[in-house]
C-alpha cells in the first residue's frame, strides 16, 4: 500500500518537475544565451580558434597534443582538437573496465534508468526544437562539414525527432520481454534484451550530429557504457551535443568522449576489451576492426549505391530532381549517395539527362549546394574520371572540372558535380567492373542504360557489387518492382516512382543487408539488434510431483 501511495505521489510531482525544468531553461536562456554551449559557430576562425576537449571519468580534460583542423572553405587553422595518443589511453581503459558485462542497467538491475533516459530524451528533444538551439547546431555542422543550410538543418531535425520518439516510456519498451509456458507447473521461460556492458562507437565526418547521437543514445538506452570517437575534423559538433545532454540530465560519468587518431583508438579497443564496437565508415577500416576485435563488431560501412529507372516513364522533372539530390547533395558525401544510375531505354529517349545536367549546374559554393570533399582530393577524383573515360564507349555527360574561384585548401577535393556514361556491356567486363564500381565519396556518379531484355545484366551487376546499403527502384510497375527487389539485397531499398537512395530519417530502418555484422540505426529494431543481445531466463520453481522418486540413471 505504501508503495502504491509513493508511486501516486511521484506521478503527481512529475508534471511539476518537468514544468520547473522547462521554466528554468527559459530563464537561463534569456540570461545566458545557450547554457550548454562553449563556442559560437559564427565566431570560430583563425584568430579565434575553438577548442575540443576529451571527456573521461566524468571530467573534461585537455592533453598536451593538439590537432589543428583547417577551415574547409578557406584553409585557416580554426579548431584545435585535444587528441589522446597511445600513452594517454589508460584512464579510458580503466573507466570502461569498471563497467560489468551486465551493463549499467538491465531488466533486473537499476530499471529506473530506463525512465531516466526517457526523461533525458524528452528534454533534449525539446532543446533541439528551439529555433536558437537548432540554428546553433545547423551552423556548427556547416562550419566543419560544409553543406547547404537545408541539408544541415535536416540532420538536426532527424536527431530531434529521434529523441522525441524515445521520450517517456519508449526506452523501457525497448527492453520488453516475452514469456513461454514450460513443460510442467512452475516452469516458464522468459526472453530478455541484455546489454553488452563496455562498448565503443566510431563515427565518420559526414553526419557530425545525427549518426553519433542516434547510435550513442541507442547504446545508452539498452544499458551499455559507451566510449564515443567522432572524426576529429567534425568532433566539435558532438562535443557541444554532449554538453547539451549533460544539461538535460545525462550523468557525466555515463559516456567517455575521446579524440584520437585511428591507431590510438584501435589500441584502446584492444586493451579495454570492449564487448561490442559500432563502426560507421570505410570498408577497409571496418574489415580490419572485424579481425582485430574477433568479430565483436556491427558495421555500417561504405555504400556504392545504385538506382534503376524502370520502363514506365512519368514525372520526368521530379525524377531528374531526385537523381540530382541523391548524387550531389552534401557534395555526394553520403554513404547512401547515388553512385550508379541504370536508365531504361524508354528514359533514354527523354530529356532526363539534360535536365539532370541543368540541375547539377545550379549548384554553387555560395549556398554550399556544392562544396569541399573532405576525404578525396581533386587530383584523385579527376584521375578516376580519366580512367573511366578510357573505357570503350564511355563519355563525360557533365562536370568533370575542378571548381573555380575558391579558397578550399588542397588537402580537400573541389570538383563540379560529375556524371560519366559507361556502356553496360563494358561495365560487366572483368577488367572494368572494379574500376567502375569504385566508390568516390564525392559528387561523382556513373550512368548507363539498358534495354528490357538486358535487365538480367543489370541484376548481375547489382549482384556483383560488394556493398549493399541503399538502392532505389524507380517504377510503379509491380512486376518490374517484384523482379528487381526479389533479385537484390540492399538493406534500405526504396521502391516506386518517388524512390530515392538518400534520406535516412528516424522513422525507418537504415542499414545494410547481406552481412551478419550489418548495423542499423534509428528504429527500435535497429537499437535492439545493435546494442543488446538475447538472454533467456528459465524459471523452474516447482512444486515436484507427489511421490516423486529418483529415476534410473540415463
Automatic annotation (TrEMBL):
The superkingdom of the source organism is Eukaryota
Domain Aldehyde dehydrogenase: from-to ranges: 123-494
What organism does this protein naturally occur in?
Prunus armeniaca
Q: Which family does it belong to?
A: Belongs to the aldehyde dehydrogenase family.
Q: Which CDD domains match?
A: ALDH_F12_P5CDH
* Protein name as annotated: Aldehyde dehydrogenase domain-containing protein
| Classification via InterPro entries | Ald_DH/histidinol_DH, Ald_DH_C, Ald_DH_CS_CYS, Ald_DH_N, Aldehyde_DH_dom, ALDH7A1-like
GO biological processes: L-proline catabolic process to L-glutamate
A GO cellular component entry from the record: mitochondrion
What are the GO MF terms of this UniProt record?
aldehyde dehydrogenase (NAD+) activity; L-glutamate gamma-semialdehyde dehydrogenase activity
PROSITE patterns found in the cross-reference section = ALDEHYDE_DEHYDR_CYS
Q: Which UniProt keywords apply?
A: NAD, Oxidoreductase
Keyword Protein biosynthesis among record annotations:
no
Amino acid at each position: 500500500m505504501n508503495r502504491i501511495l509513493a508511486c501516486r505521489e511521484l506521478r503527481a510531482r512529475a508534471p511539476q518537475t518537468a514544468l520547473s525544468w522547462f521554466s528554468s531553461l527559459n530563464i537561463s536562456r534569456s540570461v545566458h544565451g545557450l547554457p550548454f554551449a562553449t563556442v559560437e559557430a559564427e565566431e570560430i576562425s583563425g584568430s579565434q580558434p575553438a577548442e575540443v576537449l576529451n571527456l573521461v571519468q566524468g571530467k573534461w580534460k585537455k592533453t598536451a597534443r593538439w590537432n589543428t583542423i583547417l577551415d574547409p572553405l578557406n584553409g585557416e587553422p580554426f579548431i584545435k582538437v585535444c587528441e589522446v595518443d597511445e600513452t594517454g589511453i589508460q584512464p579510458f581503459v580503466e573507466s570502461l573496465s569498471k563497467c560489468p558485462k551486465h551493463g549499467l542497467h538491465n531488466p533486473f538491475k537499476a530499471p529506473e534508468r530506463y525512465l531516466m533516459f526517457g526523461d533525458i530524451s524528452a528534454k533534449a528533444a525539446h532543446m533541439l526544437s528551439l529555433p536558437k538551439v537548432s540554428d546553433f547546431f545547423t551552423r556548427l555542422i556547416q562550419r566543419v562539414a560544409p553543406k547547404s543550410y537545408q541539408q544541415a538543418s535536416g540532420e538536426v531535425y532527424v536527431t530531434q525527432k529521434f529523441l522525441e520518439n524515445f521520450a517517456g516510456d519508449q526506452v523501457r519498451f525497448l527492453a520488453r520481454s516475452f514469456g513461454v509456458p514450460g513443460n510442467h507447473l512452475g516452469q516458464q521461460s522468459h526472453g530478455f534484451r541484455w546489454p553488452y556492458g563496455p562498448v565503443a562507437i566510431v563515427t565518420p565526418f559526414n553526419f557530425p550530429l545525427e549518426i553519433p547521437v542516434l547510435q550513442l543514445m541507442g547504446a545508452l538506452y539498452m544499458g551499455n557504457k559507451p566510449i564515443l570517437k567522432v572524426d576529429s575534423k567534425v568532433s566539435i559538433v558532438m562535443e557541444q551535443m554532449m554538453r547539451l545532454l549533460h544539461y538535460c540530465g545525462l550523468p557525466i560519468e555515463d559516456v567517455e568522449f575521446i579524440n584520437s587518431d585511428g591507431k590510438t583508438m584501435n589500441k584502446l579497443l584492444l586493451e579495454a576489451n570492449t564487448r561490442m564496437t559500432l563502426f560507421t565508415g570505410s570498408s577497409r577500416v571496418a574489415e580490419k576492426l572485424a579481425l582485430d576485435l574477433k568479430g565483436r563488431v556491427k558495421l555500417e560501412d561504405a555504400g556504392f549505391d545504385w538506382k534503376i529507372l524502370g520502363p514506365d516513364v512519368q514525372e520526368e522533372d521530379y525524377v531528374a530532381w531526385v537523381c540530382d539530390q541523391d548524387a550531389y547533395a552534401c557534395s555526394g558525401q553520403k554513404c547512401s549517395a547515388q553512385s550508379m544510375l541504370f536508365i531504361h531505354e524508354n528514359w533514354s529517349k527523354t530529356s532526363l539527362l539534360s535536365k539532370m545536367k541543368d540541375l547539377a549546374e545550379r549548384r554553387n559554393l555560395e549556398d554550399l549546394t556544392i562544396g569541399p570533399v573532405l576525404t578525396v582530393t581533386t587530383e584523385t577524383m579527376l584521375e578516376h574520371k580519366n580512367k573511366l573515360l578510357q573505357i570503350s564507349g564511355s563519355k563525360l555527360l557533365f562536370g568533370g572540372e575542378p571548381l573555380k574561384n575558391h579558397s578550399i585548401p588542397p588537402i580537400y577535393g573541389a570538383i563540379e558535380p560529375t556524371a560519366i556514361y559507361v556502356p553496360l556491356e563494358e561495365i560487366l567486363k572483368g577488367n572494368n567492373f572494379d574500376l567502375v564500381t569504385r566508390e568516390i565519396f564525392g559528387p561523382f556518379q556513373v550512368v548507363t542504360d539498358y534495354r528490357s531484355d538486358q535487365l538480367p545484366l543489370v541484376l548481375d551487376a547489382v549482384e556483383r557489387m560488394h556493398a549493399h546499403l541503399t538502392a532505389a527502384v524507380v517504377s510503379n510497375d509491380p512486376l518490374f518492382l517484384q523482379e528487381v527487389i526479389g533479385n537484390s539485397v540492399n538493406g534500405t531499398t526504396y521502391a516506386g516512382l518517388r524512390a530515392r537512395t538518400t534520406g535516412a530519417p528516424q522513422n525507418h530502418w537504415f542499414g545494410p543487408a547481406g552481412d551478419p555484422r550489418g548495423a542499423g540505426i534509428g528504429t527500435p529494431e535497429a537499437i535492439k539488434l545493435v546494442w543488446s543481445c538475447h538472454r533467456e531466463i528459465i524459471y523452474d520453481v516447482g512444486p515436484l510431483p507427489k511421490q516423486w522418486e529418483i529415476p534410473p540413471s540415463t
